[in-house]
Every structure is written in C-alpha cells, then in structure tokens.
Design goal:
Layout: E1 14-17, H1 22-32, E2 38-41, H2 57-72, E3 76-85, E4 91-92, H3 106-118, E5 126-136, E6 142-153, E7 169-171, H4 183-189, H5 191-203
C-alpha cells in the first residue's frame, strides 16, 4: 500500500491538508507551523471528499492524501482518526465520523456510545484514539504512519476545548478529558502528536528537536 522512499524529504513550499474538518485542520496547522510554509486545505480548492472505503485508518488516510495531491499537484497530508471502545468491540473505529451523521453531530454520537456501553454487563470503559497520517506527493510517493493513545470513557462529556469525541476521552494517567486540557498539552500527548513525531523522523528533519 505504501511506497516508502528513503530520501523523500519534504522540502516544498506548500502543503495541502486533505480535510474539511476544522478541528483537524487547526491541530495539523499548529504542528506544521514551524515549517513556515503555505499551509492550505481541501477547502481552498473546493474539493469534495473522496469515498473512504478502506478497512483501516491507514488505508483511508492514504485514499485522502493521494486524491488531493493528484488533483492539486501539491504534496498533501491527510489524517484519518477515530475512537475505539473495548466494551463495543472497538467500535466505532473507522466509522467514528459516520456515527456523528451527515451533520457531524458529535453530541449525538457521544450519547449513542454512552447508551451502548450502558447495555454492557460489567463494562471496563477502556478505549483508545488512533490517528493515521499519510503524506503523498504528486508523483504517487507516499508515507503513512499511525499513533495511538489509550484512555478511559468519561461520562458525562466534559470540557470546551478540542473537538469530536474529546469530551468523553480521558487519557491514562490524567484526570482531565482531552476537551478539558489546554490545547498545548493535548498537542503534546495526543494520538495525532504521536503519529506526527513518526512522520517528522521520516520526512521533516528540519522539525526535529
């Protein structure tokens, strides 16, 4: 699936974030900020979202990055992420966004998850966030990495930061949900940050500490 190119270091002046999700775009822009390059998004090109029919986060991330890069002629970075609950056989997983419906109503999705967990006898409330990042160049070269962070289901939702399922996810060893954390802290420990550090080691040497 992934064509790894050992000398494929990112040195372009532009990159397109293959997403229409404002929360994801904001977090990725923050991670890329030190590059001091033009950071665009799919919205800048009025692109429709491709059909995400992959069976994994990595496959869906590559579908998005390759689609946007091919159309724009600019390297594209995509994110496919979601939350998995042990009590729900790791659902919603790759369908996390779809559980929120066409209106992206995550309050409704979080309530659905709570209702489903309440039906489980002796739930353990264990869950984890996954993020797959895929960087694709117009010539088809691409690198896809992933990151994961484990935590516990927290109800009721708490916090006004973050987006998506952040209000019901409390990472292990912390007493706050992602949505209660200041963005600076979340950006340092999140599944997206873990995946991004892997991508930095492969493609963004200028961002290494």
């Amino acid at each position: 699936m992934t064509k790894l190119v050992s000398d494929k270091v990112f040195n372009q002046r532009k990159i397109v974030i293959a997403s229409h999700n404002r929360g994801k775009i904001r977090e990725i822009k923050n991670l890329l900020k030190p590059l001091k390059i033009d950071i665009l998004s799919a919205d800048n090109f009025n692109l429709q979202e491709p059909i995400e029919d992959g069976l994994s986060f990595e496959e869906n991330a590559l579908i998005k990055s390759s689609y946007v890069s091919k159309i724009t002629g600019i390297p594209s970075l995509s994110d496919d992420s979601g939350i998995c609950f042990s009590d729900l056989n790791n659902k919603p997983g790759v369908f996390s966004a779809r559980w929120a419906g066409e209106d992206k109503n995550f309050s409704l999705a979080m309530a659905k998850i709570n209702n489903e967990i309440q039906k489980v006898k002796k739930p353990n409330y264990e869950c984890f966030f996954v993020c797959a990042l895929s960087l694709c160049w117009p010539d088809g070269s691409n690198i896809t990495v992933s990151g994961k962070i484990h935590g516990k289901f927290s109800w009721p939702p708490k916090g006004n930061y973050g987006f998506g399922y952040d209000p019901i996810f409390r990472p292990l060893d912390y007493d706050k949900t992602f949505a209660e954390m200041l963005p600076e802290l979340k950006h340092n420990i999140s599944h997206r940050a873990i995946a991004f550090k892997k991508l930095v080691n492969l493609c963004f040497p200028s961002l290494k500490n």
